[in-house]
Structures are given as C-alpha cells and as structure tokens.
Design goal:
By secondary structure, the chain is α+β, with helices and mostly antiparallel strands. The protein has helices at 4-37, 44-51, 91-97; strands at residues 102-110, 123-133, 138-145, 154-163, 168-175, 180-185, 191-200, 203-213, 218-227, 230-240.
Length: 241
Amino acid sequence: MMTNGTILALFLALAVVWNGSVAMAESSAAKPAAKAASPVKTTPATKAADSADPFEGSSNPTKPAARTAVPAPSKPETMPAAPAAPDAPSKELEAFMKAFEGNWKCDTKFAAGSLGPGSQSPSAKTEVTIKKQFGGYSWHGEFKLAKTATTAATSGVFQIGYAASTKQATFLSYDSVGSAMMGAGTLASDSVTFAEEGFLKGAGVKVRETLAARGPRKIYHKVEIEQGNRYQTLAEDTCSK
C-alpha cells in the first residue's frame, strides 16, 4: 500500500520525465531552423568574388585589334607636262597681210537688185584702214561707207586672224546697221575667200567674202550672198592708196 509520500515522489518523477521529453522535442524541432538561419560560410574564392569591382576589367584583358594601316596617297607616275609655250604669230598670215596694210580709198559698186527688187546699181565711196594688231596675231580693219541716195552711211570693223590647227585665216566683222559675220578661208598667194555665216541687217545669211591684192597699191574686195543654190554678188570694192 502506497503512502502519500510515495505517490508524491512518483508524481514528481513523471513530471521530470515529461518535461525532458518535451524539451528534447522542442530542441529537435528548432535545429533545422537554426541550420537554415545560420550564415553560409564564405571561402577565399567567394570572398574574392564578393569583393571584386564590377567595373574592373578581367585579369586578362582582351588586346585591342590592330589598326588597319591607311595607305599613303599614291604619287602620280608622271609629273604633269608644263604648259605649252604660246604659239608664235603666223608667218603665213603676216606675209599675206603685208599687201593690205595702210589707208585705202575705195570705189564701191552695188549689184543691180542687191538693195531690193528692181534696184539699180548705185555706187559709193568707202574709206578703209587696215593695220597689224596684237603683236601680229591678227590684223584690225575699219571702214566707212558714205551716204548715197539709196543707202545710209555705214561704218564697221573687221578682224583677220589665223587658226593654226586648220591653217586658215579667220574673219570676224560687225557694222553700224546690225550686221555681224564670222568665217574662215584658206590663204592663197595673193587672195583669200572667207566662207561666213551671220546676220545682214538682222537676217540670217551665208556669205562669201573675197579679199585680193591687185598690184603694189591696189586691192580688191567682193561680198556675195547665198540665194537659193547659188551666190549672188552684193557689192564690190576697188581700192587704192
């Protein structure tokens, strides 16, 4: 038969056992959480990775690609030729024009019908001056045609040069009534005929103009205008010094 003391001692022993089991259970349940909460151990490699500067290049930086060499501009194989010296004045033109230099007084005769349908052949007086110009590269001429009963007073200028490429004399003229002509012709021993195109009193025309020496102190000049398939004489000048 248990006494009160024995029952009390047994009760205390069961309490101790119960409390110990509960403590062990609580301790076992808390261990996984403690492990999860424990900080991860860092290794030296991890420390180096954590402390590395994200903006710092790698320990073995990539070498920049080599620059492509830009080739130097190539020099021309040959130096440009020096400008050719200007051609000398034409000796052929100078020899030809000697006979035409000076001051001339001319009798001018217009062909019948040249001044209009049914017109007669009036005559007039013309003064002409021809002289060398520009160091012999060309000859400059001026003329003055006196007024007549059927023609107005007319003045004009002309220039005779030389085209070495075609070996022809060149002709350029204009006057006070709106005529302007330009052409070229081959020099003969004492004459030249210029084939010209231009305007005669504002109308487009083709003209042949002949200049010839007729002795030491005489020259001859003729102007022809194209009419259909032929040339018609417009005027003739016989000049003397």
